Amino acid sequence: KKTKDQLIIDAGQKHFGATVCKSCGMIYTASNPEDEMQHVQHHHRFLEGIKYVGWKKERVVAEFWDGKIVLVLPHDPSFAIKKVEDVQELVDNELGFQQVVPKCANKIKTFLFISDEKRVVGCLIAEPIKQAFRVLSEPAGPGSPTSTECSRAWQCSDVPEPAVCGISRIWVFRLKRRKRIARRLVDTLRNCFMFGCFLSTDEIAFSDPTPDGKLFATKYCNT
Ligand code: ACO
Ligand code: ZN
């Protein structure tokens, strides 16, 4: 299928000549031992999910019939930070993102959606930003290299618009998608990002969205 080719191209140079694991979705180079080891790790984690036993002073910011959302801040105890790092690693592996060092690590807010089975099934990482560039609704026109070679290169407006909060990652465990988990994570973020106000959809921006991310963001922002 077409999407699979695109997935490989999307990941860029780092993954040239790569394999996509059909069960865990990770893109890796089978001939590279380091990559292969990372894959084995990711594969297990993916299949069993990341366990979450909870901690005494966890910050529950929303509760639902099928789970809850916990907020983790940069100065939280190291076991909480470790959990966030594990999740981020899983997400980055799945998205084929390289590790991105955030500009303001001490202002990052991480929201974890914890299922009733005590697994981390959703994650949203947000940071304060000052401006964003709107993704134009039409991807680059036919014949332009971006539209055929890379489905992630949306054409962006070059006019900056003010924004408050950037979503650098949003991810939902594969088997739990389309259950409004991402929507509830963003709702909770809008409620908790700045004390005492509910951010409008204009004030949040999704950074470098994937096709899934763009479909979700478009739907979310219009409703
Ligand atoms: N295709 C079409 N519409 C979609 C999709 C999709 N893949 N995903 C969400 N939507 C729309 C739907 O209209 C949906 O409502 P509906 O189910 O009632 O029709 C609405 O968005 C709300 O969807 P949720 O159920 O809240 O979304 P979900 O919990 O499934 O999570 C997400 C969406 C996070 C994009 C998930 O598919 C995912 O983790 N994908 C892989 C990781 C990824 O690509 N993340 C985005 C990266 S971009 C970034 O991080 C900034
Ligand atoms: Zn795998």
Provide the residue-averaged pLDDT. 82
Tally of individual helices: 6
Q: Uncertain segments of ≥5 residues (pLDDT<50)? A: 1-13, 139-151
The fraction of residues in strands falls at: 25-35%
The rough form would be described as: globular
Which ligands, by name, code or SMILES, are bound?
acetyl coenzyme *A, zinc ion
Helix content: 25-40%
Estimated structural class: alpha+beta
Distance between termini?
Answer: 31 Å
> Count the strands?
11
- SSE pattern: HEEHEEEHEEEHEEHEH
Biggest sheet statistics: 7 strands, mixed
Any idea what the radius of gyration is? 18 Å
Protein traits:
223 residues; seven-stranded mixed beta sheet; two-stranded antiparallel ribbon; 6 helices; disordered N terminus; binds acetyl coenzyme *A; binds zinc ion
Description:
By secondary structure, the protein is of the alpha+beta class. It contains 6 helices and 11 strands. The chain has helices at 2-10, 33-48, 78-95, 145-149, 181-192, 211-222, and strands spanning 19-20, 27-28, 50-51, 59-64, 67-72, 109-115, 119-128, 131-135, 156-162, 165-172, 204-206. The strands form 3 sheets. Strands 3, 4, 5, 6, 7, 10 and 11 form a 7-stranded mixed beta sheet that branches. A hairpin with a 3-residue loop joins strand 6 (109-115) and strand 7. The chain starts with a helix and ends with a helix. Mean pLDDT is 82; it is low at 1-13 and 139-151. Bound molecules: acetyl coenzyme *A and zinc ion. Acetyl coenzyme *A (ACO) binds next to strand 10, helix 5 and helix 6.
